[in-house]
Amino acid sequence: MPVELFLLATVGFLWGAQFGFTKIQLETLPPVTGVAIRLAIAAVFMWAIVIAQGATVPTGLRMWRDFTIQGLLTSAGPGLLITWGQQYVDSALAAILNSTSPIVVTIITLLYTRQESVGPKRILGLAIGLLGVMTIIGFGALEGLGHSFIGQIVIMSATFGYATATLYGRRFTSLSPVAAAAGTLTCSAVLMAILAFAVERPLAIDPSARSMIATAASGILCNGVGVTIYFRLIRTLGSLGTSTVSFLKAAFGVMIGCFLLDEPFTASIAIGLAAVLIGVIAVNEGGAGKGAARG
Predict the structure, then answer these.
(1) CA gyration radius, the chain
(2) Would you say 193 and 37 are in contact if contact means Cβ atoms under 8 Å apart?
(3) pLDDT reported for residue 116
(4) What is the mean pLDDT of residues 264-287?
(5) Is residue 74, in this structure, part of any structural domain at all?
């Protein structure tokens, strides 16, 4: 379990760092094209690992249909929805709304899948973790609830996508995590490339070296390495445990801002971070959640 918690924290750190990489990427790259390039780099990186390891990737149409759906639920769909929603919703409130993914997973698990046990300890851990995120970001962000309603609904739709992805991803537990990551990222890249050509002019871009380095780093580390670990965690921690990465992503996103961008590190951030860690540990010690995957 300590190894899995370390890996969960690693994914949270990588996905939290992606906010900074994206900010640099957007300096000279349009949003959809930038995401498409990032995912393409991630896919190439993962296929190199698949070939090096000799991992088996299924060729059946059903599996590639599942890869496409998983890609839509993880990288392609939510990223666009959050980007659109943040035009109308403050980033702080967006981060809190996005952190409710574990709550959505719990509700779906209780009402439908019932693949994992959801006891009092796990529910308490979820509450503590979400409270920690709100403490880090600031309760003042909640004042925006009710305003820009459409934007908030769009962001919550992205959160629903992330939550569903952790449940849908259980069907890949029989695959090598690198194979699952390669297949999913490939489908995500294709989807985003099609959209980029539909709404932007990818062939006319003139990105700076700084933007391309940030895009490549984000693709390899955040998408490539991060998604590979993510698929391993779905197998070992289950859907609910893995979904708590949303708490860690928000927390590390703020922490990175403090240490790299000279933003103030306050007592409320320290208290909130402690609460997030306690909540994540409580959820993952409250049940391993290794129920059989649905096909």
Answers:
(1) 18
(2) no
(3) 66
(4) 80
(5) yes
Question: How far is residue 217's CA from residue 201's CA, in Å, rounded to a whole number?
Answer: 23
What pLDDT is recorded for position 86?
A: 64
Whether 19 is covered by a domain: the verdict is yes
Question: Dihedral sign, CA of 188, 190, 194, 199?
Answer: positive
Q: What is the average per-residue pLDDT within 206-217?
A: 94
pTM: 0.81
How far apart CA 7 and CA 47 sit, in angstroms, is 21
Structural domain harbouring 85: 2-285
> What single-letter amino acid sits at 294?
R
Are 284 and 1 in contact, with CB atoms under 8 Å apart? yes
Cβ contact 141:96 at 8 Å = yes
pLDDT digits (tens, 9 = 90+) for 99-133: 778 887 887 777 665 666 777 788 888 888 888 88
d(CA 109, CA 115): 7
The number of residues in the chain equals 295
What does DSSP assign to residue 147?
A: S
Rounded CA gap, 43 and 56, in Å? 16
Q: Domain for residue 131, yes or no?
A: yes
**Can you tell me whether residue 287 is helix, strand or coil?**
coil
Nearest to 239 by CA among 295, 169, 178, 158: 169
Is 176 a domain residue? yes
Of 83 and 26, more confident? 26
Question: Interior CA angle at 281 toward 280 and 284, to 5°?
Answer: 85
How many structural domains compose the chain? 1
Mean predicted lDDT score pLDDT of the chain: 83
278 versus 221: the higher-pLDDT residue is: 221
Written as six digits, the tokens of 13 are 């750190």
